[in-house]
Amino acid sequence: MGSSNPTRTVMIGCGRMARGHVISMLAQQETTQIVAVSEPSADAYNTVAALYQAAGLAAPPNEPDLDKLLACYGNDLDAAFIITPHSYHYLQTKACLDAGLDVLLEKPMVINAQEAQGLIDARDKTGKLLVVAFPGSLSPRIRTATAMLRAGELGDLLSINGLTWEYWRTPNLGTWRQVPEIAGGGFLFDTGAHMLNTIADLAGEEFTEVAAWFSNRDTPVEIVGVAMAKLASGALVTFHACGDAGGRARSDIRLTCTKGNMHAGQWGEMLAVQRWPSDEWIDVEVPASLGVWQQFLAVREGAIDNPCPPEVGLRMARLWDAIRASAAQNGKVVTVGSV
Length: 339
Known about the structure:
Shape: globular
CATH class of the largest domain: Alpha Beta
CATH topology of the largest domain: Dihydrodipicolinate Reductase, domain 2
Strand order of the largest sheet: 13-12-11-10-6-9-8-7-14
Largest sheet: 9 strands, mixed
CATH architecture of the largest domain: 2-Layer Sandwich
Strand content: 15-25%
């Protein structure tokens, strides 16, 4: 589909994250048309409608019932952009794939491996496209990093160490992000999901064993989470997520290899390498990053491969299942895939 034929999409969810994407998409009228939205909150919809009014455009209609929306507008749609709480992702994405739409799905893909496999099955059955909107996997830095690692430029992978922290606990008290049944987890599965996914992407192989511990800090979900894991190759991985730290969200991912080391960020915000025997760290130059929606359009047009397919989401979901199972048993080692 070229730029002369705008991609016609439905926006499912009009919350804070969705509004940022809408602002970007409004500047891409030649490639993008939001035909309708599906949002149960009148306040959230009105906030998005105000963005259209400010741009001098008529707001798309809202149909909160997704099944009714797909029945009414399905023939006028090419794609769906799903930006809703985590536990809704599976059913909403499956419904859109079954309706013949390509899907861009906000992170995390789903809340467990069974749902992840279900979406892969739905994608394969329908032949439609499913891209997970993790900015790390979508970034040119992480794509460059994975290419370097697969090519063996730094030798064999020995270990990965991931850390993310944010002032997250208090601002999210009382919100859906701290309701386990809706969020699927706490800080490690919210901001920390970026770390889990980026490391799963960089590793490029299955996790085999996991041990994990959580601290909820008087909330219903984990606020601090630590996990250790082993990859199929024998490389070792650590994850550390602290959601009660001071400051904005930050991340730090370190990879050690037999011929050098790599320093990355979970959102693809940086990439540097050190090649033995030099001790110098060199920033890796990469192409300018496309936005999330622009990359989705590029994948639909066949200009680039899918940078974040559901197979990476399945690997992360299996890891998350094992992390939760181990933490529930105070760090007992769990075999990935046995949960």
